[in-house]
Amino acid sequence: MEFFADRAEAGALLAERLQDAHDPVILALPRGGVAVAAPIARALGAPLDVLVTRKIGYPPTPELGVGAIAEGGEPVFDLTLLSRLGLTPESVAHVVEDERRELARRIRAYRGDRPLPALEGREVIVVDDGLATGSTARAALRAVAGARPAKVTLAVPVGATETVESLRAEADEVVVLLTPIDFRAVGQWYEHFEQLTDADVLRLLDRA
Fold first, then answer.
1. Global pTM?
2. CATH number attached to the domain at 54-109
């Protein structure tokens, strides 16, 4: 069974698989994706920024994600799960508005008044620390696609096989190092998987 020591090691290994990228922009999904993306940006000599996303939770159990939203994009829902729960996108509109406010807060915290880098015509690499349901990555990829980049690559160290396959339709390329059969959670594939804070994200961005 393979493990990554931490997110930095995972990022360094991913960077080896991304050497053919041409003048890319690296967009990390905070918080965990930033720690993976930082060594990629260093290795490729590429600019690093964040693409802020938020999970849209099932109201009685917010940990259960029924969708996600990314800055610059519209909400993306798991319509099958919504239907199974007896919900519609309209019935969780209040949750979406709450998450839009938190999205705006985090954008201000991470980027201040600085806008996202210009993505039109650029090669963009979207990075996260792993894929479970893939809802936030899907929302991020659709938001990036709306900016008309030349190419979009999703790069993650580990992911559930079905999720990885489902996201191939959302990106020009998906680079993933591990797709374990017994995948249960992203953190199980790291020896050290500490929760990052906003201060950690800012420190990594400052170094980049």
1. 0.94
2. 3.30.1310
